[in-house]
User: What shape does this take?
Amino acid sequence: QIMRYCIICKMKSFTLLSLTSTAAAFTSNGSGRQTTRTSLSETKADLQELANKLNPSVKYWDPLGVADARYWGLDETATIGWLRQSEVKHGRVAMAAFVGYCVQSNFVFPWALTTSGMPHPSTELSPPEQWDALPFVSKLQIILFVGFLEWYSELNDNGEPHYMKGGKPGKYPDFKGGIPHPVPLNLYDPFGFSKKRSEEAKARGLISEINNGRLAMLGIFGFLSEQTIPGSVPTLTGVVKPYAGEVMAPFSADFTL
Assistant: This one.
């Protein structure tokens, strides 16, 4: 049921991010608040080198020149840090959205959605229609929770620099030590698997994550395009259900402005 929120998040910068061969890098130290401050100041040359690893055929491709845009008067390092953070974040949202779309199309939880006994929206509905069928309060809870995750990632750095000031793009801060009550698991690497991996394995994992995120962005938009414009993605014709709603208006079923 988080599909509609995921759609909005990706649409805001999908065009920008799909046209630049930037990437996101992160590693988890897995040690709570005991961190070592590091600085990662990347340049356009670093993007070009990374692009060759991501796709040796396409290599560096930035027809809109976003790496040279200097948004809000920022310098090159801050601009590239922002672009890389944006891509990894949208790639992760897209991967969650793609998997969620496939699961929601075939399975919903058997228990009640609300205390009044309302069931989860049926698989007879497409994922966007399932979102529309949710109570307004349910939608609000989902968006507020995701908003909290966004707020926390920006304000709690676990002692590391911000991603626009030399920090590692895509690194999500630990909950432990940052929230004033016990939190059993972190959002990233909750079971501590990543901290046991070698640096070489982490580097390979980064390349895979970025490429998978890009593929997921194309995949979820393929679903949505075919739903809203039947026949626009021939391979999905008859696979996904048409949708007559507005994918960019998450509360259109509740109210209009």
